[in-house]
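User: I'm curious what two different proteins look like when written out as structure tokens. Can you demonstrate?

Assistant: Sure. I'll show them one after the other, since each token string lines up with its own sequence. Here's the first protein:
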Amino acid sequence: MPPVQYADVNGVHMAYYEVGPREGMPVIFCHGFPELAFSWRHQLRAFEAAGRWAIAPDQRGYGLTKGPDAVQAYDIEHLTGDIVGLMDHLGIEKAVLCGHDWGGIVVWQAPLYHRDRIAGVIGLNTPFMRRAPVDPIAIMRARMGDEMYIVHFQKPGEADAVLNANVRKAMDFFMRRPAPGEGAASAGLASERTGEESVFPLVRMVQAYDPAVDPRPFFLSDDEFEAFVETFERTGFTGGINWYRNMTRNWERSANLDEMVRVPSLMVMAEKDAVLPPSAADGMEANVPDLERVLIKDSGHWTQQEQPEAVNAALLDWMGRHFPK
């Protein structure tokens, strides 16, 4: 990673990493849960080699960016506002935003909240999602049960305590490739429950997890894995979980938003992502009319780290055609 820098933006002291010349269209990389700016190390290296300006922040509540205590300080207005505040700090009028997992939600929502500041959007794994007809937590609770991880995350402190109790085990559970032949059903991630059991009861799964018998291969080196473990042992998981605890608030406050993403966009799908499969992006063109898609083969959920060369090639090709240097 390049040297860490800091900016006081939108009420937080934000850590960020920057590469490339300060010219042309910059790209800001937004990580997901439970990740860090470090998750974009391969992309920063590739963009620097290509002479592209790129920035990756530790977002609010993660890594070296300490977040406020108040849960409501992690809503989508704050999260998108942090990115625009970082742009202001760097003197950037417009940027392309690239987000993975929860960062994907941030970058798809950013042009709805800050239309004049976003030049383009790249979503990794996470598609644009229209506003639900009712509270999304109520939908998930009815369809997937009380222990489905996003529903469970709504209980203050409970999931945090389980994940914080053994960060090494939790990160070992998260940071693996899919097992050979693994799909949504075999991973226990079917879209709806068929009995009393909840879908994807992550907290219970982590509690019962034994790394010694996990057949899924690693995609991190030992040093990379230790970087994640050491960071989350220091910070805990509450900051990231607080993003989930604002899903109802985000839904309530977005009733009057125009849901059209009116900038050039790229959707990068991962062939073997059981949580956000390629089919999740079906129908996006209705809200994202200037959309291209690319499928990354043989990748699970952690696409930019599992298949960095394929991801880098797709991102740089799209940037070269839409925002040439």
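Here's a second, unrelated protein for contrast:
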Amino acid sequence: MLKSMTGFGISEYKDAKRTLRVELRSVNNRFLKIDSRLPDALQAFECKIEKSIREKINRGTVLVSVNYQSLLQESEYVLNCARLKEYYRLLSDVKKEIGSREKISVNTLTMLPGVLQKNKNNDEDANALLSICVSLVDDALTKMLHMREIEGRHLEEEIEQRKTGILVMLDKIEVRSPVVVQEYSKRLQSRVASLLAGTNLELTDSNLCREIALFADRCDISEEISRLKSHLYQLQETIRLNEPVGRKLDFLVQEMFRETNTMCSKANDSIMLRDLVEVKTEIEKIREQIFNIE
């Protein structure tokens, strides 16, 4: 089953403490690239947030956007008043003993160890926030993957249609190929007869046959048609595999172009060239769709 690299998923959460919104967007890329835009509270957990995305997606650029809003006003640090008073008492006792008149600065006291402490509630909130965020990412990822699968089915249908059209045109070209040689033979005989009219010169049938055989050999595209058909059948089998196949399909399309270009250089017939140009056009349209496949 084909999967597109284009998709979108969104998931939201809200309670009395916070609101959280996760958006995932994916677009084309030859490799996997994740661009995460996280709030400060989740910056340290980027790898954990991206883990499920890396496990389930092989190619594409994925934009992870997390919007977080706290509904509570809590300080990042809290003041340990008991420890501050203890420091003040000790310093006051020392001042009396040494007879110092220097004032004890509150600013100085707050810089002493243990006076300003990190709010434990913030650590607990960060872990809870991470858990919620990972759950939202998984939910948004499921939605995005579903969208990529739907788009992949549409791509598969279009590629199948174009593949069928190319095979029909190749059948026409295959039928036309021997006719080209026959027409060349008639033109050659007519041209030679016209040029030798009124002279005593004669061109033997063996000479004509040799020239026609050389022309037929130069214009023979049967091998190229056979290989191109083989690539088309491989294309059909590949798009039905249950795995990422974008790179395999890209390689097959390159080979299809090569065979078609060879046929164009060999074809010495306007009708065949017109059909071959149409074949190249259809292959190009297939390649455009493959750019979107994971």
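A detail about the second structure: DSSP finds eight helices and six strands in the chain.
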